[in-house]
Hints:
The chain has an eight-stranded mixed beta sheet with strand order 1-2-4-3-5-6-7-8, with helices on both faces. The chain is an alpha/beta fold. The chain contains 15 helices and eight strands. Helix 3 packs antiparallel against helix 4 (60-71), helix 7 (176-186) packs across helix 8 (202-211) and helix 14 runs antiparallel to helix 15. It is globular. The longest helix is centred in the last third of the chain and has 23 residues, at 340-362.
Amino acid sequence: MIPVAELRRFALPHAYAQGIPGDVVHRVMRNLNEDAKGGPGVWTHEWSSLAKAAEAHGRDLDAVRYYTMARFPYVDGPSRQAAQNAGVEAFDRWRKRVRGISRLDLPFDGAGFACWAAGLSQRSSLPLILVLGGVTSTKEQWAPVLAGADRLGAAVVVTELPGVGENTLTYGSDSTRMLMYLLDLLGRAADASRTCVVGLSFGGHLALRHALEDDRIRGLATAGAPVRDFFTRAAHRTPLPRLMTLTLSHVMRTPVDRLPAALADWGVDEERLTRLRTPVAYAASRDDEVAPPSDVRLLEQTVPHLRLVENDALGGRPDQAAETRLWLLSQALRLAGTASGVRRAASARARVLRARRRLARTLPGAPA
């Protein structure tokens, strides 16, 4: 059972990252009932009801966002599975109207995974921006990036970590093999030798380990990626948030009591980081429970080409989430060496949001 209290706590950044308005999020949170056994008051029911209402009014992209919340943090039964399936279907309807977005279904290791892609072409080989979410993030969340791909001067491909969404692989220490296979395949329709990865949280960690093995990765833009100390703490059985423990257990297909041993060798040490030649743009949160401040300091001391921005929280409010999204986009375009106009606009907007937030903190009555 996923604790409702932790759903409330961890879902806010997840919702804001998709652009769901704060009043909608808080209305759902108020309607939740710890004792509800089904129907109103249940997490999946509340979000799925919003999604169905959006579908009825032809707002498929809103439906995608709400269904994504309904299946958060992972599929643990029929109701979340129904939300997962409905979210993919709503996205498929939306992307057919937008045009230019294709679906890739890829078999791998006796299982498989799916991608949404824009800008792939065997005639004009564009730099590649590969987007990879974390252990709770589905590929459908990246609709705005795909819709704007024609202005980026790059091919854009979004996919999911093993065990997440439609990815039926098992998340493990060897999951870099999936990325190697994907880049080999995408090299037929994009310039994979100029790949920039946008990786969130554990997606960023996987991309970091992959970049140590594959010089086609020319840049990594990430937010809250664990590096070493998260895994060291897990190995020593330092308590993790219950939701995080359950989610990792699900995507790794590993019982909770075996997670410490399974995660023990996942950390990236100083010696390997000093050999990293891939430039890294890293958005950090000072209160992150997955990527502790010690991991950020480790990157500062070891990674030769690091650009760092730190906030009190990356997605605790809509403006913070928007700022982080824009910063990641601007850094991905910088690292890919493309779309200078879009890059400058995204960077400028991120700076404006950051300045507004700093100003708001100085005003009387502003939250601490």
